[in-house]
Amino acid sequence: MENFAGGTAEPETEPDAARVEVLALPLPVAELHLHIEGTLQPELIFALAERNGIKLPYAGLDELRERYEFTDLQSFLDLYYANMAVLQTEQDFADMTRAYLERAAVAGVRHAEIMMDPQAHLSRGISLETCVNGVASVLATSHEDFGISTLLIAAFLRDLPEESALEVLDGLLAMDAPIAAVGLDSAEVGNPPSKFERLYDRAREAGLRLTAHAGEEGPASYIVEALDILGVERIDHGIRCMEDPDLVERLVDARIPLTVCPLSNVRLRAVDTLADHPLPAMLAAGLNVSVNSDDPAYFGGYVDDNFAQLGAVFELSDFDKARLAANSIHSSFASEERKAELLDELNGREVPHP
Ligand code: ADE
Ligand code: ZN
After folding, report:
1. First vs last C-alpha separation in the chain
2. Which among 36, 91, 166, 231 has most CB atoms closer than 10 A?
C-alpha cells in the first residue's frame, strides 16, 4: 500500500512518537452525515426565539438540556422538530449554518455535505426560498470563509407520503436550488426505502447524487432495499449491516460508503454503550466506514469529539483514524480535484506507512 489515500490495506506497524505528536491535531476529514437543523445549540435556540418573539416551552437552558435524554430515534425527533420553530428567517438559517461551520473547522472538517429537511420547514409555513437560500448563502463562501468546501443535500422525511417528497423535489428543481444530492431521513422503522422508489428515480434523472439513511434502527434488509430499489451510492448509518454477513460481503466488495455516527448511535440507544459500537468490527471487516456527527448539538459532540471518544474506548491506532479520514474523503461527492487536495493534506501528516 502506498499511502492512506488508498484507504484499504491493513495496518502492519505502529506509529512512532514524533509522528503521534503531529496526529494530535485533528485530521482533515470530510463530514458526510450532518443535519444542519441538528447543529442548533441550546444557546442559539434561545437567541433565535428571543429575536423572533417565540415563547419556548422551557424556562431556560438547563430545562432544555434536561430534555436531551433520548430513549430511541423518535424521542429525539420529537425535540428536534419542535426546536425548529425558532428558525423563521433566512438570517436564522444563515446564522445556524455559520455556527456549524465555525465549529466544524476546529474539528478538522475540510469538506461537509450538509443535509437539510425542507419538509420540516414547509409544514411550519416557512418557504423553500427562506430555508434553502438562508443555508445556501453561507455555503456559497464556506471555502473562503472557513476552509470548508460544502454541498447541500435535500433530505426527505420518510414518515411522510412519497407524494409530499415528490412535490418538494419538484419545487427545489423549479427554483434551481443549489442541491447536489437527495437523502432520506426521519422515523425509519415502518418506512422502508421501497416507499421512495419514484422519488429516487426522479432525483437520478435530475442528475442528483443519492444517499439514504438505512440500518440505523431499521433492519439490514432496508440497506439492501436502499441499494437495490433506490440505487443509492452511499448509506447513512448502516450499522445493522453487521447482522447480515452476505450483505457485509457485498458492501465490502462494492466499497459502498457507510457514514457512521457513533455518538448518535449511543444517544439514540441503537447501541448500549460506545464500547458496544460495531465500528471496530466494521473496520476489521473491511467496510468503507467514516465517522460523522449526525446532530452534534443533540448528541454530545462534533466529529473531533466522536474521534476522541472512540479513541478513548477502543484505542484505535493512528493508522485506523487516518484510514477513517481517508474513507470520508474518498466517499464524498466532492470533485476529484478537491478529493486529491484533501488526500494530499492528509498524507502530508506523514502518518506512518505500514
Ligand atoms: N434526522 C436527524 N437526525 C436523524 C437521524 N439520526 N436518523 C434519522 N433521521 C434524522
Ligand atoms: Zn442522520
Report:
1. 8
2. 36
Query: What does the pLDDT average to over 141-156?
Result: 98
Check 31, 90, 216, 217 and give the catalytic one: 216
d(C-alpha 188, C-alpha 138), whole Å:
30
> Is 228 contained in some domain?
yes
What confidence tier does 351 reach under pLDDT thresholds 50, 70, 90?
low
pLDDT at 11: 42
Q: For residue 308, what are the domain limits?
A: 27-346
Q: Is 113 known to be catalytic?
A: no
Which CATH number do you get for residue 197? Answer: 3.20.20.140
Residue 4 falls inside a structural domain: no
User: Residue 352 carries which DSSP code?
Assistant: P
88 lines ligand 1 (CB under 6 A): no
- The count of structural domains within the chain is 1
Asked if residue 15 is part of any domain, the answer here is no
Q: Does a structural domain hold residue 196? A: yes
Decide: 303 and 291 in contact? Cβ < 8 Å.
yes
